[in-house]
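User: I'm writing a tutorial on reading structure tokens. Could you give me a worked example: one chain, its sequence, then its tokens, then a sentence or two explaining what the tokens reveal?
Assistant: Sure. Here is the example chain.
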Amino acid sequence: MTHSTRVTSTELVREVAQRLRVTPEQASQYVQAVCETLRNFLQQGSVVELGDLLSLAVSGGAELREDESGGFSAYAPSSRGIAAKPIGALKSDLDRSCRASIYYISRGDGHFTELLSDHFGRRGWQLIHTRNGMEVQTRMERNPPVALIFESHAEGWGELLRELKCDPMTNWVPAVGIFPAEAKDAPASGLVIRPDDVIYEPFDFADFIRKAASGLAERVGAPRRDAFELEMTLSGGIKDRKDAKETLEEVLFRCGLPERFNTDLGAAFAEALDNAYRHGHKNVDCCLIEARLILDPDGATDSGSVVN
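And here are its predicted structure tokens:
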């Protein structure tokens, strides 16, 4: 099974802007300059090696030598193909990562881990077990996840979920959280980025597979969505609403949207949260606010609702 997505130039610019911490306009200039330079080298017949990544060369044609005119040598392609070969670390990583990786985070390594590994292994996927979210963050750049399963008592899952869901490049990765039964009615403590699915203990493994793993199977290997969705749960406190607005600003920056659009959408999102907070406090002492931001090619929407 292969898992492939089409990365556009816009997405590439967003990723460069995020990594270099520059504006999308600056990142676009960097990417364009690199592309122009590569094109010039390839047109000259050069073989371009990009670190531990790719070896690029014009394919087809034959070398022309003009010794009588001063030793001139050029490469005249009969076709305009470009041959790209993975080299170095990329080749090694591709050889090792032939199977899609599903990360499972828990403090222990017991029978449940073995059951998950066996279930996914028989379907051509590999289960990578870690004991905390920080370990996943250090590994996922070289071995990116196609799905995430975590237990709520493990450390660092909140930070990991925030990193995955706030990044346009990984927002599509489905996440399933396993929580104790008492967490179902517990109030939110601070800002929480919600997983795609939640399963409460106790549960039967077969039920878990039907509810969670089958859902993962539908999404793993599917093309990445063009739409971007982020769902948050927060209490009615001012600090939580401020954290939610800052999270939104981080997401918009990573998406590479124009600054004016960032400002307008940020104001609309903050107003939606305030309205939900005010309406929820008319008749109750406290409430939970669920906030959802959806970005898609046709536009952007935001909403705030109250769960009493």
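What the tokens reveal: The domain at 228-307 is CATH 3.30.565.10 (Heat Shock Protein 90). DSSP finds nine helices and 14 strands in the chain.
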